[in-house]
Amino acid sequence: AMEKSFMSMFLLLVVISCAMAKDAGKKETKETTAKPKLPQTLSRGWGDQLIWTQTYEEALFRAKHSNKPLMIIHHLEDCPHSQALKKVFAEHKDIQKLAENFILLNLVYETTDKNLAPDGQYVPRILFIDPSLTVRADITGRYSNRLYAYEPSDIALLYSNMQKAQKLLKTEL
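The structure assignment produced for this chain is given below.
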């Protein structure tokens, strides 16, 4: 019953925010025709149409209760590697579509959870956590010294790792 009311509350919020977004789009003035600086959303540019969680705790809760894998992107706004990966990630249509099946969190700060830095605190790094709240240490990038690092040229590997995180979900849980 609580899940049902949570879901209807969530849908109500989605509907309201969509309606507000539509209204906001109508008020076009001379100032907005010059490319507007979009307000900073939870996506931080990684995919504005995706639903992002605000905190690690919220992300874990959602992953567990929705039975979806969690994808955590650690990055920094002033890191050229993070910026380059973000651009490719946000423009990659297949990744953006697949990301809809994940609970998403991007962090510009470190968490106190050591599981999120199994091999060090570097950026960008992307970790997958399954709904049993286990960090998937088996889903890594191509670097042996930075297991969870991805570069723009690794976008196909990231995509296949996202698929792997999804498949593992169906076969293991």
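Interim note for the steering committee: The radius of gyration is 17 Å. The beta strands are 70-74, 103-107, 125-129.
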